[in-house]
């Protein structure tokens, strides 16, 4: 982000760790915990039919909570489940451009897998709604991946197009990712690795982001008064 004005970062949930049996209950609890901008619904190895059934159960749950439901890597499932968006993970600029031409602006279209600055800038030229930095399933460690932090920090400082930076499984990692300036913090294992505590985890993440925003706002006001 090119502006120096503080902004309140938001949470994006990824369903990668969820099994078919607990997905609805776990996601429902998470969405009850506070502000969530969107949910990326991940096939996570499911066959097409299984994934369609999975998405058709989760999309209305997400939408009823006021978040955007974004299906990963399957245009047919996205359409049949009436999702709000489509996310492509392959790091393929042409595929991303084709998806934007076919589905935007009716649907949100974003992408990931662009692991160099050159590739990310090429993807940005296609004008997706956002890019995500980090690999799905990579958030199971205590700290965010260094490359995620590097790419998100560079992107947020240079490009107006929003980005999502994937976090890790600890509360401390949320502030670490937020330091990059990414507009959205992607969370999966932090929220879903303890069944029954999903609402509390989302509430904690929002509290940490609120506290960060308050600090940044106070600093901006001090600079303006100086």
TrEMBL record:
SUPFAM superfamilies, per the entry: Thiamin phosphate synthase
GO biological process entries: thiamine biosynthetic process
Listed CDD domains: TMP_TenI (cd00564)
NCBIfam families in the cross-refs: PRK06512.1
InterPro entries: Aldolase_TIM, ThiamineP_synth_sf, ThiamineP_synth_TenI
Recorded superkingdom: Bacteria
Organism: Fulvimarina pelagi HTCC2506
The name this protein goes by in its record: Thiamine-phosphate pyrophosphorylase
Domain Thiamine phosphate synthase/TenI: 21-188
UniProt lineage: Bacteria, Pseudomonadati, Pseudomonadota, Alphaproteobacteria, Hyphomicrobiales
């Amino acid at each position: 982000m090119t502006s120096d004005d503080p902004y309140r970062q938001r949470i994006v949930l990824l369903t990668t760790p969820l099994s078919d049996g607990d997905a609805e209950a776990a996601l429902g609890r998470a969405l009850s915990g506070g502000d969530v901008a969107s949910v990326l619904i991940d096939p996570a190895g499911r066959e097409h039919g299984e994934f369609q059934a999975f998405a058709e159960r989760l999309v209305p749950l997400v939408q009823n909570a006021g978040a955007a439901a974004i299906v990963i890597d399957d245009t047919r499932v996205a359409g049949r489940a009436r999702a709000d968006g489509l996310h492509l993970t392959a790091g393929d600029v042409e595929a991303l451009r084709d998806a934007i031409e076919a589905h935007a602006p009716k649907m949100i279209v974003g992408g990931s897998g662009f692991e160099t600055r050159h590739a990310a800038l090429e993807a940005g030229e296609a004008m997706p709604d956002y890019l995500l930095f980090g690999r799905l399933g990579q958030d199971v460690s205590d700290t965010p991946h260094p490359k995620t932090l590097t790419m998100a920090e560079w992107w947020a400082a240079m490009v107006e197009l929003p980005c999502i930076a994937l976090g890790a499984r600890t509360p401390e990692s949320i502030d670490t990712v937020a330091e990059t300036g990414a507009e959205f913090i992607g969370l999966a294992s932090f929220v879903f690795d303890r069944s029954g505590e999903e609402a509390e985890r989302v509430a904690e993440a929002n509290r940490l982001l609120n506290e960060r925003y308050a600090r940044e706002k106070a600093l901006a006001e001090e600079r303006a008064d100086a």
